[in-house]
Amino acid sequence: MTVTTDPTPPAPPPAGARGEGSPDGSPDGSPDASLASFGYPQELRRRMGRYASFAAGFSFISVLTTVFQFFSLGYSFGGPVFFWTWPAVLAGQLLVAACFAELAARMPISGAIYQWASRLGSPSFGWYAGWIMVTGRIVVVAAAALALQVVLPAVWPGFQVVGGDPSPTTTSGAANAALLGLVLLALTTLLNVLDNRALSAVNTVGVTAEIAGVGLIVTLLATHAERDPGITLHTGGQGGLIAALLVGSFTAAYVLIGFESASEMSEETVNPRRTAPRTTLSALTTSGVCGGLLLLGGLLAAPSLTDGRLATEGLGYVLTSTLGDGLGRVLLADVALAVCAATLAIQTSATRMLYSMARDGVLPFSARLARVPRRTGMPGTAAVVVGVCAGLLLLLNLASPQAILAIGTTCIAMVYLAYAMVTGPMLARRLRGEWPPPAGDARDELGRPLFSLGRWGLPVNALAVVYGVFMTVNLSWPRAEVYDPEGGHWWFRWFTVLVLGATVATGAAYRWYRRREGLGPAAGEADLRSRKEHGSEAVSA
Questions:
Q1: Quick one: which of 187, 246, 289, 431 is 20 to 30 A from 37 by CA?
Q2: Contacts 24+ apart (CB under 8 A), 321-327
């Protein structure tokens, strides 16, 4: 199989021959045309429209899931002023998303981070970016599934199966979180093995319910405000202002990731060159606005900012205390639905990344992981592997309640590092004058110019790299007060660094084993390297 590194789409055919109504949205109406220039056959079923593509990114971000899960962390360290970390992180992520949108228009391929880093950097560099992202995504799946514990016991006490204290920071709460998470993972894995029509339908319903829920919650909190927005200028968290804001930014950093899922689903999206860039940006922007309003509404409507409950129970406490048990539980049920949709979307994205690398033959058991049965059109084996690995991570919660925070911060640090491994080589190409590639007559499936940052490309890209590196270091820093506040678990304090190191070391060991056994680089990687050496890469044309 030949895998081209040419990210520039072919010139569109004459009007009337583009096949706008074709089932896959490809320029000539052929199912294979959209991927032919990259050397891949069309195996996944191309059925997703624009709203479903938007839903893939919005469900991954899932402001209801993640804001409810991490509000208490941000508030406990930053106090009300932690609100301002939200627009700061959103601005930084929009810089990254703008770079990704430009890439999505030119390389609409599953496994976006791996594919982009391989073509912008080198095949081996891209392999490490993909390996880190796959591992990070599996950790994100586990972290998202744990969020059920934040809402379900508050909806109905019967969901607290283990012990009596539902707080995720207690032993019984942590164990129950693992149990609920395992049940959820079993369901999401099943959906990822079935047809993508069922997957898209569940995502669409979940996103619609989440948007409606956010609108209703924000409106109700605004009508029950106890104070004015000036409260966001007050501190009150742990430590000094700068340290409080750096840790307080974890909430926004954890929420505002996964917007590139629209690009991950490109091979299943109609008109991907047109759709993916726009839904990548719209998913992040919509989530940013919704999440910021939720944070502000929670701070304004909380019965008290000083009784300690905001720092331990978060927004769930605000809803049930302010709106009453009845209405509060109905809204929390909507949050639980959002948690389920988010876990499904994240697992789907991780599965597509695993599938994309496996079909290049660059992973252990690649043939099985890349298998797509004709009956389902879904990479079922990859989905099962992601589900099982995430389930094993949930068992860490049985060791200590602190595991939920360690898992959450580790996954976002790995995602941020993988993002930087795309924006970094992209910046290097810009500085060498090799990006963006000459557009010529290249257009999207509807015959319109491809998404481009134009003259803003260099400053946006440079700022995206600086922001990404800074946040990766901030998230990975082994702060004892964050990761091991009770002491006695040094490995939780260093958990993010240890997992990052173990991920890179495991990947290096696998590549060394291939070389020692005389297997050499995998086929897909060899093709990429060969085309680079022979100067056929159109990026640098």
A1: 431
A2: 322/220, 322/221, 322/224, 323/220, 323/224, 327/220
- The half-sphere exposure of 368 on its side-chain side, counting CA atoms within 13 A, is 6
Q: What is the DSSP string of 275-340?
A: HHHHHHHHHHHHHHHHHHHHHHHHHHH-S-SSSSSHHHHHHHHHHHHHH-HHHHHHHHHHHHHHHH
Structure tokens at 409: 């911060």
Check residue 65 and give its pLDDT: 84
Q: Compute the C-alpha angle 482/486/488, nearest 5°.
A: 105
- Once rounded to an integer, what is the mean pLDDT over residues 106-135? 93
pLDDT for 489-504, tens place per residue? 788 888 889 989 999 9
Q: Residues 343, 144: contact at Cβ < 8 Å?
A: yes
The helix (H) or strand (E) run that includes residue 515 is helix 495-516
- Using alpha carbons only, what angle is made at residue 119 by residues 114 and 122, rounded to the nearest 5 degrees? 90
487 Cβ contact list (under 8 Å, min separation 6): 480
Residues contacting residue 508 through CB under 8 Å, at least 6 positions apart: none
Backbone phi and psi for residue 228, each to the nearest 5 degrees, phi listed first: -100, 170
Threshold 0.70, pTM exceeds: yes
Q: Which two tokens stand for residue 521?
A: 């680089």
Per residue in 220-244, pLDDT (tens digit) is 999 999 999 999 988 776 666 787 7
Show the tokens assigned to 502: 């173990």
CA distance 335 to 341: 10
DSSP helix, strand, coil percent of the chain (3-state; round to 5): 70, 0, 30
Least confident of 79-93, 322-336, 396-410: 396-410
Nearest Cα to Cα of residue 277 among 445, 404, 163:
445
Residue 184 confidence (pLDDT): 96
157-166: per-residue pLDDT in tens? 899 998 888 8
How far is the C-alpha of 202 from the C-alpha of 7, rounded, in Å? 32
Nearest to 78 by CA among 309, 329, 248: 248
Q: What is the pLDDT of residues 448-471, one digit of tens each?
A: 999 999 999 999 999 999 999 999
Residue 505 CB contacts under 8 Å (≥ 6 apart), including other chains: none
> Which value, to the nearest 10 degrees, does the dihedral of the CA atoms of residues 348, 366, 388, 340 take?
0
Q: How far apart are CA 370 and CA 481, in angstroms?
A: 43
Give the containing element (helix H, strand E) for 390. Answer: helix 380-394
- pLDDT tier for residue 16 given thresholds of 50, 70 and 90: very low
DSSP 48: B
Cα–Cα distance between 513 and 517 in angstroms, integer? 6
Cβ atoms of 531 and 444 within 8 Å: the answer is no
